[in-house]
Give the backbone structure.
Amino acid sequence: MSLRFRSLFPVIGLFLFLSAAHAVVPQTGWWYNPNQPGTGVFIEVQNGWVFLTTQVYDSTGQASWAISTGAMSGSSFSGSLDTYCCGQTLTGPYQPNQKTGSVGTISLSFTDEQHGSMTWPSGTVPIQRLSFTASPTAVAPQAGAPQPGWWWNPNQSGTAFQIDIQGSNIFADAMVYASNSTPIWYLATGTMSSPTLYQGQWNEYCCGQTIGGPFKANQLKGSAGATTIQFTSATTAVITLPGGGQEQIQRFMFGGTPPPPPPPPPPPPSGSLSSINHVVFKINENRSFDHYFAKLNEYRAMNGLGADVDELPAGETNPRVPDYAPQGSFHLNTMCIENTSAAWYVSHQDFNLFNLSSDTPTMDGFVWSGSAAAYNEGGNDTSGSRAMGYYDYTQMPYYYFMATAFGLSDRWFSPGPMETEPSKMYVVAATSAGHAHKPASSVNVTTIFDLLNRAGISWKIYYENQPSDAIYNFFQPSAAQNASHLVPISQYFADLQNGTLPAVSMIEPGFGSQDEHPGTGNNLQLGIADNANLINSLMRSSSWKDSVFILIYDETGSLYDHVPPPTNVPNPDGIPPQDLFTAAQNGYADPPGDFTRYGFRIPNLVISPFSKKGYVSHVVTDSTAILKLIEARWGLPNLTRRDAVASDLTDFFDFTNKPWATPPNPPAQPTNGPCYDSLP
């Protein structure tokens, strides 16, 4: 996205839709006054008919709009600016609007398809087509791409979305009404996730130019919530609004012959997310994707599959302590490497060793972080070299088999640059409630378990060690009120045997070898064997037929991964970090930042009778994808803006053919690998 694009959108003042039957035909899209980059117009041509909307501000500073419609006269248009009220809010039920009056007139005159002038109650200004790509002129849409212009839900007239796409960038606008019934608009801008998918935020602005007043730049007021726009054709789309509500929208034809209707949808598959009746998930500790799956493509090739995984490339290095010599990746032999950390400072250091506040990834601080952990804990690996070590399929045959038989993602990131507790909190509530570190006290926010309770959906938390280990205990009074839902792991096996597995199950691992946390004496193979027992027991049970088991890790523990995490994800609830360390507290200061960056890639497995065989997902997401799956399956609202933009994991599944209706027979996981405190 160009600087020009970023600087203009926050101060745009109005939209127009129009069309010319003769003479100059203006391009469809966003126009603006180059001398006052806060006065803008959105222009559409439909057989000589104009639909014009102005998006400005009222005398109180609230975003407002008016519209005008009518016929073009040659290369010009003139009409009345009319106001409306009392229609649908952004997330409320449909309600038709009402016309309330007029605020003046507006005229347009075009000299060519990208230049013209506008006269409105604030005076006469030049206007030209806005390019929001690197090109100096606006980029025309590609054939088959979503059409720029006016979109609407034909069953709910009065609610409109104005969409302009140039290259991979999008500018979308929602014209709705505030809770006091006055007109209000929201903007969603940014880069498309794919040619047919946008994921972002509706933002509200205030305090800019009024219809009759002088130019005045506006201000960002805040986010109104997350949105996605999934285009199903050039003229149809599904828009997901804050709170999870969805609308089918299509191109609005206000002049001439409408476009041909889209082809009929394919017949519904024989199964869907509703085929899943049990979601089981477990969060283990402190391992990175490259650290575990560095040789997954080699294993896939041995089993006749393609090299589809973005795995550890050859030649990756990090500067070593203390001489900055390059430390390359290497095959670990010991199952028991020394402890590491993924705390806020350390994770920012991993991302950019020499500029911790930067959003530019250099991915060169992992070895230094490993060194610091060894010095702090009296370890032997003071060079930090273990951070570049990896394992392979000879040491963890169970994981490699399951990752190849079922599915995994090579774009699954931890929720943020944080340690265990805040990272796991995201998998319960899609937020850490402002905590970058382990909270010193409980937090009171809505969790996925609260949503399940309200919907009457069964759930349990099975603990392998003791109930106090559950991350859910940080959420009060919710955890205290639901203490009966926390049960020992023996109950998991009993529920599998008795056919009483709840709809949603979280398994809390025991600390040490069971959760695979690095540490002297912690044999990771014991943790893998523990998970093998949990998963195999599910596959052998009557619950297998409609279950999914998801294994993830809380964060990477500063073990090397080569893929930089995204730095433009939504802060879940608008709360910045509240507990960053100061130099007075810790002898060093945490770098500034926000919860708008994912952590690094983590190992993951998605195991189900519906899992596609050998599937590798490249959909970018974080661990709140588990919440999104649960929400999508049982019709629950999103918890925050973070799970709202997460993947719902449906790309992993084939509900029609049910590839693993009969589960495979995975290899036994050895547990006798060498465990010593040195390298390799």
Notes: Residues 524-539 form the longest helix (16 residues). The mean pLDDT is 87. The longest strand covers residues 98-112. Residues 198 and 255 are 28 Å apart (CA to CA).
